Amino acid sequence: MSNKPENSSKALLGTKQAADLDDLAWEHPTPEAKRALARLQKREEMGLGHLPLYDGDEVFRDVTKPELDITEIIEDVAGWFVRKDMKFYDVSNIGTSLNVSDVDKVVLSRIREKYPYLELDDDLI
Predict the structure, then answer these.
(1) Region at 121 (left for phi over 0; alpha for psi -120 to 50; beta for the rest)
(2) Based on CB atoms within 10 Å of each CB, which residue in 78, 96, 105, 106 is the most buried?
(3) How does residue 86 score in pLDDT terms, banded at 50, 70 and 90?
(4) How far does CA 25 lie from the centroid of its chain?
């Protein structure tokens, strides 16, 4: 007495029923499904189909205040200056040496210019 044919026929029947339900759902979508499909089609038309969908409040986030990436800021500052013979030089003007207070002023000025949304507090400075 073998159970394999009986089990496989049940599995086949279950798969067929699931396929029939899928076909039925595509042929007669609910109003909610129609709205969701229309929204996805509109995203495709706007060229946004490759972007992830967000649920809830994440859809509307303030892009004028991006998340702070301190590593990016440090890399930027490190690329602005070089040091030689205990003197600092601006990479855009190698001919003039700068002292530490000059470098501090230039760094603060450039950070304010490049990251206007960033609130400079004592911990960050």
Answers:
(1) beta
(2) 106
(3) confident
(4) 33
